[in-house]
Amino acid sequence: MVGTHQPGQAVFRSILPEDIDWQPFPAFPPAVRLAVMVGHPSEPGPYVIRVKAPGGTKLMPHRHPEDRIYTVMSGVFYIGLGDEFDGDKVQAFPPGSVIVLPGNTSHFHWAKSGEYVTQVTAIGPLGLDYLDPADDPRKRS
Length: 141
Fold this sequence. Notes:
Layout: E1 23-24, E2 33-39, E3 45-53, E4 58-63, E5 68-74, E6 77-81, E7 91-93, E8 98-101, E9 107-110, E10 116-124, E11 129-130
Antiparallel strand pairs: 1-2, 2-3, 3-10, 4-9, 4-11, 5-8, 5-10, 6-7, 6-9
């Protein structure tokens, strides 16, 4: 029995690091980049994205409706749980770490020690809601 394939998974293909298409993402601070690796994050179904944040960048407290699995590709990924940003509450995860983040968990990120790249695997559609609307780059003019 042959099953149906997920979007972008019907034929063998590869994505080399130099071919990754990093793009701005309206819900992120301007310097942060997102690359869609597999699938269509805005639609129902599995997807894989990568997020690159330059050193010093903070993503203020937010939630995603979908469960997420983060894999740290490079740099050190700092994540904290809670409704308010607290730099003393971030945990550091080195490359190779895997973090399971249940949907609707309030959290924040900080590129505390330099640039990091994470890979996110989830079932879409992707959602991102800031706890304080003033932190949402989509609401700034």
